[in-house]
Amino acid sequence: MSSLNSPRECVLVAGGAGFLGSHLCRRLLHEGHHVTCVDNFLTGRLHNIASMADHPNFLMLRHDVIEPLRCDIRPTQIYNLACPASPRHYQADPVHTLRTCVDGAFNLLEFARQSGARILQASTSEVYGDPHVHPQPEEYRGNVNVVGPRSCYDEGKRCAETLFLDYGRQNDVHTKIARIFNTFGPSMAQGDGRVVSNFIVQVLTGERMTVYGDGSQTRALCYVDDMIEGLMRLMNSADDFRGPVNLGSPRESTILNIAYRIRRLVGSDVPIEFLPLPADDPVRRCPDITVARHHLDWEPKTDLDTGLKKTIAYFSELMADVSNSHAA
Ligand code: NAD
Ligand code: UDP
């Protein structure tokens, strides 16, 4: 099955000006769909959607999803990606993050019911918290701190999953849930504190690389194009398959290994500085993607170095543009 074979749809992407959302909007437009991007620009940027702004099939609505969505558009598909994803941003206003997760999900589900659209929730590996089972299969129930600094996001996303399932059943709305694991690529925001963007920018600017803890904690990094393919396959999957389904790379690396890789790929020898590990930072994380392989015929295709090289090229160009504009 390929997402390329889907009929022409009218698609609403909430969070479409963010990192994943802007890639998704671009891919959908490329495939001939009509796209409405809904975003409050909390962490999204006009820069991410600038290349689509004049496209005849693209519409941008500035809106906060914690408020009900009232507009004339009748989408056939809704992707709910609206939520800050980086700890730095989702911890800045935890109550708003929770409301975005829960009220935002509710408002978009209501809109899906009114429109007759199917709706996909961008959930997260954070629903597993600091996992005791490794790698994490979908049936693992997780180890989440209810009252920690990451809880507004983790518990908000867990509640949104429950809401998606219950609302879908009670109101006959077709829901899908993707549990997204760490994803990286061009258009990540430079200052949002995520590991790949931090390390690349630090190496390119000759700063020390900030490794939290001793760097032995693990993550499995998925390249953005693979993630978008997975999300679209899930949206267009069989009616009786609703998830939750893990989407991510099954290849786990330590954070220190990721730091060394990025340094090697840039050809730099900047020093590494070890800083305290943030509270509740998961020790190991890696998805079991058996379900995605089976139901979506999906697995990531891009190897880590190839993805990192593309991301390094993006940030190099971005920083060259900035220094040229300062010089002008
Ligand atoms: P991002 O911060 O780049 O994008 C989120 C977008 O949502 C931004 O454009 C932001 O302005 C918008 N937004 C936030 N709150 C909103 C609100 N209340 N109303 C309207 N718009 C709002 O993050 P991303 O990495 O693109 O993540 C997209 C989605 O995928 C998020 O839901 C996130 O939880 C999920 N996810 C991402 C990752 C990852 O590694 N990138 C991992 C797990 C889950
Ligand atoms: N991390 C790090 N240095 C940084 C940014 C992040 O060592 O400059 C670590 C962080 O502590 C975590 C991992 O990298 O263990 C992934 O962090 P990120 O914020 O990208 O994602 P998440 O913690 O949400 O998986």
TrEMBL record:
Bilayer topology annotation: Single-pass type II membrane protein
Key words of the record: Decarboxylase, Glycoprotein, Golgi apparatus, Lyase, Membrane, NAD, Signal-anchor, Transmembrane, Transmembrane helix
Domain of life of the native organism: Bacteria
Short name of one Pfam family: Epimerase
GO cellular component, one term: cytoplasm
Main localization (coarse): Golgi
All residue ranges annotated as the NAD-dependent epimerase/dehydratase domain in the record: 11-247
Cofactors required: NAD(+)
InterPro entries in alphabetical order: Epimerase_deHydtase, NAD(P)-bd_dom_sf, UXS-like
CDD domains with a match to the protein in the record: UGD_SDR_e (cd05230)
Endpoints of the signal sequence: none
GO BP field: D-xylose metabolic process; UDP-D-xylose biosynthetic process
GO molecular function: NAD+ binding; UDP-glucuronate decarboxylase activity
Subcellular localization: Golgi apparatus membrane; Golgi apparatus, Golgi stack membrane
Keyword Transmembrane among UniProt keywords: yes
Protein name: NAD-dependent dehydratase
Source species: Pollutimonas nitritireducens
